[in-house]
Amino acid sequence: MPFVTSRLAAAFLPLLLAVPAFAKLPALTPEQQQAAAAKKEQAAAQAEKEKKELAASMEKIASRWRERAAANGWETHPQVSTGGQAPGGAGNPPPASPIRSEKAGTAPPSSDVKDPEKKGK
């Protein structure tokens, strides 16, 4: 019997130790809320600054390459404007195409399926 009780104790001990982890944190004071808001604004301003610096750097490199390509007679294609987006166009996902499903009735039945009217005859 001591084996069973020790196993039960071993099973419930982590639960008892984890109870303080579920305690709620106290609400932020107005000063802490203002400090958090200021920190968030500062981080957003820094991110915007870095984004502009990156775009300027990429533009500088691209224009230098285009000048060199023109001097060497390399084929170039028209420059595509990203409209302030990050590389890769992560800002605008492609439009979703409508879902076509036989079950939902938005698609015609497949031609490789047997005729349901003849089934069971």
Question: What is the structure about, briefly put?
Answer:
Residues 33-121 are annotated as: Disordered. With 121 residues, the chain is mostly helical.
Explain what you see.
The chain is mainly α. The protein has a domain of 39 residues. The protein contains 2 helices and no strands. The relative contact order is 0.04. The model has no long low-confidence stretch (mean pLDDT 81).
Comma- or semicolon-separated keywords:
single chain, 121 residues, mainly alpha, 2 helices, signal
Residue ranges: pLDDT <50 for 5 or more in a row?
Answer: none
Distance between the termini: 66 Å
Described by the principal axes of the CA atoms, the overall outline is flat
Q: Tally of extended strands?
A: 0
Determine the number of helices (DSSP H or I, runs of at least 4 residues): 2
- Overall mean pLDDT stands at 81
Beta-strand proportion = under 5%
> Measured on Cα atoms, how large is the radius of gyration?
32 Å
Q: How is the biggest beta sheet arranged? A: none
Order of helices and strands: HH
